[in-house]
Amino acid sequence: MELLYILIGIVIGLIAGFAIKKVLEKKDAESILNRAKNEAGKIIEEAKEKAGQILKNARNEGEAIKKEKILQAKEKFLELKAEHEKVILERDRKITEAEKRVKTKEAEVSMALSRQQKLNEELQQKLKEYDEKVEFFNKKNAELQKIHTEHLRKLEEVAGYSAEEAKNELIEALKDDAKAEAMVYIQETLEEAKLTAQVEAKKIIINTIQRVGTEEAIENSVTTFHLENDEMKGRIIGREGRNIRAFEAATGVEIIVDDTPETIVLSSFNPVRREIARLALHKLVTDGRIHPARIEEVVEKTRQQIEEEIYEIGKRTVIDLGIHGLHPELIKTIGRMKYRSSYGQNLLQHSKEVAKLSAIMASELGLDPKIAKRAGLLHDIGKVPEEETDLPHALLGMKWAEKYGEIPEVVNAIGAHHDEIEMTSLYAPIIQVCDAISGARPGARRQVLESYIKRLKELEELAFSFEGVKKAYAIQAGRELRIIVESDKVDDERAKQLSYEIAQKIQNDMTYPGQVKVTVIRETRMVNVAK
């Protein structure tokens, strides 16, 4: 700071000298120069005094700061020292505790070693005693063997049989007794199994049914379409019927326009097409623009929307059931089941119910519930083909499952749940039973009792219309017609022909859902009475 003031003074002096020089050029240079020098000296002196004062103040402030920092350092040192001493004390305490534990362990180990040594000594003593006893018993055994041999020789002399011959004769006698006892035991076991099998089966089925709660309200595909007024019927028909023809060609659904007020009927055997037609017609009526080009555009968009919705429904179903790894085509087929019903029972709800029941029953029987659930969900996929087919739905579903990589147990369960093929695993009867449970529970299927009984009677009466039929029974809810013929009137060839003729007559004369299996039984019984 002192040097700074000196430099300031010098600069000021130089400026003053420069000014004086200029003045001296016009006036008296010497007097002005002297005055300037005097003034510069005064300024320099004042600057020196100020610089000294500032330097003194700075030194005082530095001393104060130095003392403060020294005090802070001392306090910090004392804190660190206290913490260090605390850590050392804690470490010493832990070391002391560890030493105590080590000493305790050493004492325990010493005691254990002493006990082990005593045990070893006792064991050696026991081994020595055991060896002595073994040697004693060996001597006794040799003596007994010698006595036994002598007795056998004497017995053989008395009985006239050798020991081997007597042993063989005894074994044969024991074999006969054992066989008799085994047969009795087997018979008793079989009888007990027959008595308990029905009870256990009923328990499993009842437990399975009780653990699955399902709603009894069933969704049916809508086949009627309501209009705001009858004028809309004319717009749907169009000029010379061009709109209705374009709509039927685009959807494959027949539109029936009759005298029913504000209502038209959509008629099609394909429920997916019927749903596409319903949604497309709703869009057209709402929009108001109804002409062939617009109809084709709306129907195509609706078809794409339904296809996407079908896949999403199938995907959501398999996720809800916890089933993984299904082929996308099978997922799409599952989604199509939403638009199919059997006896008024929605097929998708039925399949989900069968899947849950099958999983529970498989768990009760110690089988894999995942496989059973998978087979239960897929068992009716053959009911929703995209094209018409002559195959029964069980065989068609089995074919699809095999095509898309399902395991043999699932494939067999699908194909055998209506006895079209032989059951090769325990999953097949589980699916068959759960299918029957789901279809038979109260409220599952909407069918008037009178019409149901009438259809069964019609089946039986149709069978009795053929010559040689002795008895006829409509079983499995009308899915099978079992016929017993008179063996003296109907031979084997005629029985085969009769089965075909009855099936054809049912197909041509009756209306029924699904399919009807016709079984003709011909048997000969010979009976005699012993008096």
Keywords:
single chain, three-stranded antiparallel sheet, three-stranded mixed sheet, 15 helices, 70% helix, 6% strand, flat
Task: Provide structural commentary.
The protein is 70% helix and 6% strand. By secondary structure, the chain is mainly alpha-helical. Strands 1-3-2 form a three-stranded antiparallel sheet, with helices on one face. Strand 2 (254-256) and strand 3 form a beta hairpin. It is flat, with a radius of gyration of 54 Å. It starts with a helix and ends in a 10-residue tail after the last strand. 21% of the residues are buried. The model is unreliable at 213-222 (pLDDT under 50).
Question: What is the element layout, followed by pairings?
Answer:
Layout: H1 2-26, H2 29-159, H3 163-210, E1 224-226, H4 231-237, H5 242-251, E2 254-256, E3 263-267, H6 271-287, H7 292-321, H8 328-336, E4 341-342, E5 345-346, H9 347-364, H10 369-378, H11 393-403, H12 408-416, H13 427-440, H14 449-464, E6 469-475, E7 480-485, H15 492-509, E8 517-521
Parallel strand pairs: 7-8
Antiparallel strand pairs: 1-3, 2-3, 4-5, 6-7
Helix pairs in contact: 1-2, 3-9, 5-7, 6-7, 7-8, 9-10, 9-13, 10-12, 10-13, 11-12, 12-13
- Which runs of at least 5 residues are low in confidence (pLDDT < 50)? 213-222
Distance linking N and C termini: 152 Å
Supply Rg: 54 Å
| SS class | mainly alpha
Q: SSE string, helix = H, strand = E?
A: HHHEHHEEHHHEEHHHHHHEEHE
**How do the strands of the widest beta sheet line up side by side?**
1-3-2
Helix proportion: over 70%
Number of strands: 8
